[in-house]
Every structure is written in C-alpha cells, then in structure tokens.
C-alpha cells in the first residue's frame, strides 16, 4: 500500500503511503506519475508526490479488487481491478484490468 524509492545500491530514499490503496505499476509523463490501483481506481501524482486526481474510483467497495465481477456489471468510467496504465503521446491514458475476460479502457485527454 505504498510506493518506495531506492538508490541503485538498494538504500531507501522515500516512501509514499498517502492516497494509495494497492498500487501495482506506474508510468511517468513529464513530471506526473500514473498509478493503477488494484483497488478500483487510477491515481495521478505530481512531481512532489501530491495528488492530482483519482480516476474511475469505484464507489462500490465490493467491486474493488474483485476478479469475479461479471462483465455485464461493469460500469463505464469505473474501474474494478486496474493493473496496468500508460499514457500515449497525446496524453490519453490506457488502462488494463485484471479480469478473466479482460478489459481495456481509453481515457481521452480533453484539455
């Protein structure tokens, strides 16, 4: 339930625990970090590790980190088990979810 930074020889540098549930991956674009969170949302931090946004935060705790959610129960714009996320060159975000039938969501940049 945290992000950790280490030196190349393995010495701890920093730990961030605020605003994270269960991060599993990250992608960096300029000074922002994109973090898919297996507990039903995607988080963006700025260069100072301050919250920019939580995207697709699932309001139903029973559907977060639940691989058994049926495909017909998915709601557009709400994540269940985001496992990977990446920005493209235009600033759009692609999110893959860890579900038996798979799910890829494109979040289109609007500004």
Explain the overall architecture.
By secondary structure, this protein is mainly beta. It has strands at 3-6, 12-16, 27-29, 32-37, 41-45, 51-55, 82-87, 93-97, 103-107. It is built from no helices and 9 strands. A hairpin with a 2-residue loop joins β3 (27-29) and β4 (32-37). The protein is globular and about 45 Å long.
Which properties best describe this structure?
111 residues
How would you summarize the topology of this molecule?
Layout: E1 3-6, E2 12-16, E3 27-29, E4 32-37, E5 41-45, E6 51-55, E7 82-87, E8 93-97, E9 103-107
Antiparallel strand pairs: 1-2, 3-4, 4-5, 5-6, 7-8, 8-9
Summarize the structure.
This protein is mainly beta and 111 residues long. Helices cover 0% and strands 40% of the residues.
Strand order of the largest sheet: 3-4-5-6
Helix content: under 10%
Mean pLDDT: 95
Strand proportion, as a percent range, falls in 35-45%
Derived structural class: mainly beta
List segments where confidence is low: pLDDT < 50 over at least 5 consecutive residues: none
Major β-sheet, in short?
4 strands, antiparallel
Number of helices: 0
Overall shape: it is: globular
How many angstroms separate the termini?
A: 31 Å
What's the helix-strand series? EEEEEEEEE
Please identify the oligomeric state.
Answer: single chain
**Extended strand count:** 9
């Amino acid at each position: 339930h945290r992000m950790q930074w280490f030196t190349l020889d393995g010495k701890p540098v920093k730990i961030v625990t605020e605003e994270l549930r269960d991060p599993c991956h990250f992608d960096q674009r300029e000074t922002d970090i994109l973090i898919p969170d297996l507990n039903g949302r995607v988080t963006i931090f700025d260069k100072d590790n301050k919250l920019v946004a939580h995207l697709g935060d699932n309001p139903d705790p029973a559907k977060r980190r639940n691989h058994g959610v049926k495909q017909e129960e998915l709601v557009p714009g709400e994540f269940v088990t985001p496992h990977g996320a990446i920005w493209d060159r235009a600033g759009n975000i692609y999110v893959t979810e860890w579900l038996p039938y798979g799910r890829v969501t494109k979040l289109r940049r609007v500004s």
